[in-house]
Design brief:
single chain, Rossmann fold, five-stranded mixed β-sheet, globular, alpha/beta
Length: about 120
């Protein structure tokens, strides 16, 4: 699995690029950096870009649930960018776990996702 975390714009926007299966170790890198942005900016916006994504291992799934519970109100917008129907379904599945405005984009529209995530800041 490949994992990259990028800070964009004024630091309020976090772009996460994932390939393969998301692991607990990836969360160990993602969570502290994201929590630092939340401390600094209050609410953050996340752009989650998936390439050949195969979901979460059990450790990552548990870390994701804990993160969602802790930061239920801390994410303002969540753009999910993917390549398949099940990834599009994630945008619906995520709704009960956050107060964020969530929108799905096809991988071909990644620039539109970036525009949407940064709009109205």
């Amino acid at each position: 699995m490949s994992f990259a975390l990028n800070e964009i714009a004024t630091g309020k926007v976090i772009e996460v690029d994932v390939t393969g299966k998301l692991t607990k170790e990836a969360y160990a890198e993602f969570m502290p950096m994201t929590e630092e942005r939340i401390k600094e900016h209050g609410k953050v916006r996340i752009l989650f870009v998936m390439h050949d994504f195969h979901g979460w291992d059990m450790g990552a799934a548990w870390e994701d649930i804990k993160f969602d519970m802790k930061h239920f109100n801390d994410i303002e917008r969540l753009a999910i960018v993917g390549e398949s129907k099940w990834e599009k379904g994630m945008s619906v599945f995520c709704r009960p776990f956050t107060t964020a405005e969530i929108k799905y984009f096809d991988i071909a529209d990644v620039e539109k996702a970036r525009e949407w995530i940064e709009a109205d800041m």
